[in-house]
Amino acid sequence: ERARLHPDRPALTFIDGDGPTPSLTYAELHDRVIELTQRIEGVMGSRRPTASQERAVEESQFAAAADRALLLFPPGLEFIVGFFACQYCRLIPVPTCFPKPGRAMPRLESAAADCAPALLLADAETLAGLDPARLSHAVTSPPHLATDAVQPGPIAGNAAALLDRIEPTDLGLLQYTSGSTSDPKGVMVSHANLLTNLESICDAFGLHRSRSADDHSISAVSWLPPFHDMGLIGGLLEAIYLGGHTTLMSPRSFLSKPSRWLATIASTGATISGAPNFAFELCVDRMTADEAAELDLSRWEVAFCGAEPIAVETLDRFANHFAAAGFRSNAYIPCYGLAEATLLVASSRSNHSAPRLKIDRDELTMGRATPVGDDHPRNQTRTIACCGEPCLDTRIEIVCPDGRPCLDGQIGEIWLQGGSIAQGYWQRDDINAERFGARIANDAAAGEFLRTGDLGFFHDGNLYVTGRCKDLIILRGRNHFPQDIEATVQRALGDQMTRCVAVATNAYVGEALSIVAEVSRHTDEDSLPSLVRHIRRQVIDEHEIDARQIVLTRPGAIPVTTSGKVKRAACRQLLESDEIPARYEWSRSILADQGTSD
Ligand code: 1ZZ
């Protein structure tokens, strides 16, 4: 549709350092996709089901009708060509991280073994580097096709007719979540889910779809990996849906020099770009006030932030640091979302200064959010970023452990319903009913909900996310959110620390608090005991908990997901089996947990 409406408009440009900057107009993107579609049909033709077989399958279950195609692309433009070509062929695209030569790829392996792909799409260089000795049968056995080796040729037949075969209920994406590799979960996202969520994002952020050739106001920048829902849908598909232009960068390019992200936003005049909280923090830390002032960020309208807890401190630091660059604090939009709901669930509205709520810390540990004023003691106050209102066609219920809806201000699990909720996990009927078919107690008419496993509350119609059910640390009947304790440790260690994790580990009676922190290689061995004492004291001061164990380790030792979130459960397991490589470890007697003093 976009290629017909404005064929010559640039759709995508990829920039990486000083190298070439390949780019595709909408017409070129469309032609590349059709050429590849024809090649795939050629490769797969004999393997696809006949029309009568297909009808029989469709009548039983639509998902079984389509084969899966694994996408293995390095950052660049080939990924999106492969992605759309799969959709045109009615193959389900499965984005995965791309294999790095000589490295084990457990996430790629587990997704491939789970979805059993019928085709593998990659660029020629990646295919040439695939090492059969390191990769399993699931990755090496299906037919392979190098998208960049497909020669341009005449387009046979009517390209639009290809799209007529696609039903809204067909799967348009199998999105593997960033959970444990031993328990892969591919979220089945239908075309209808994708379109509903793209439209919801458009509505939430006050964006509009370009409808004519000379209306091109949308310009985006993304360095987010396209195998993650935020990078794929938020970073790539949304701008294409709107008819805009996206400048893509590799995640590595951003991480090695964060200023590149902001400089690209400034030079392209991008209106939309976003990232998880840590990226905004990194920009403040790595850029001087002078560097910040050289940029022009005044045209940045939607700086979305989500995917991990949003710290109001980051929000303020970023807005202050880049005020001289013309950054408007009301561009900062906290969002909440997850792959199981396609992407966006709730967001604060564009052009509202990101609201926040101050609540009483003690009440929070009792499961209640009680707003307090500015005169409330600082160490008894927690300020939470507001994730705004549910997006279009999404219903949010906060549900108590007994399955009943919570009252306003009461913390419970976030349950969701609506047109963006995915069709379940691929071949996981063991958990699908429980996760995607949850019911409110005594209200069968309310229908089925997705259980997110996240905790939050509503206040004045706005959602506030406070943590995840399974990560909660419960000590002596009080709930503690690991993020809060981790923030204290971060404050205590400052930039000597890269990451930390707070988890509940088994104690003599019940559970106790363990903390693991990665400290910089440059931190002197002799100073480690005093760092531990400092952490311990700060955690007691701010949370009234005496940790039972504090481990200082090297950077990279804490397990993280592909999207950079700390894996607390995995870290807890490593701790309990004594497998964290400690540089320095302190623990107090397990018997002390019997005592009454905290
Ligand atoms: P994933 C134009 N989480 O992270 C572009 N948000 O999915 C629009 N925890 O399945 C882009 N506070 O990997 C809009 N605010 O992880 C982007 O992450 C909207 O625990 C953000 O269950 C979408 C993020 C998608 C994402 C989901 C998990 C959640 C939750 C955590 C996400 C959070 C947050 C705290 C938030």
Automatic annotation (TrEMBL):
One of its GO terms (biological process) is fatty acid biosynthetic process. It is an enzyme of class 6 (ligase). One of its GO terms (molecular function) is phosphopantetheine binding. Keywords: Fatty acid metabolism, Ligase, Lipid metabolism, Phosphopantetheine, Phosphoprotein. GO terms for cellular component: plasma membrane. It comes from the Bacteria. Signal peptide: none annotated. Coiled coil: none annotated. Its EC number is 6.2.1.3. Belongs to the ATP-dependent AMP-binding enzyme family. This is Putative long-chain-fatty-acid--CoA ligase FadD23. The chain holds residues 57 to 654 of 753 of the full protein.
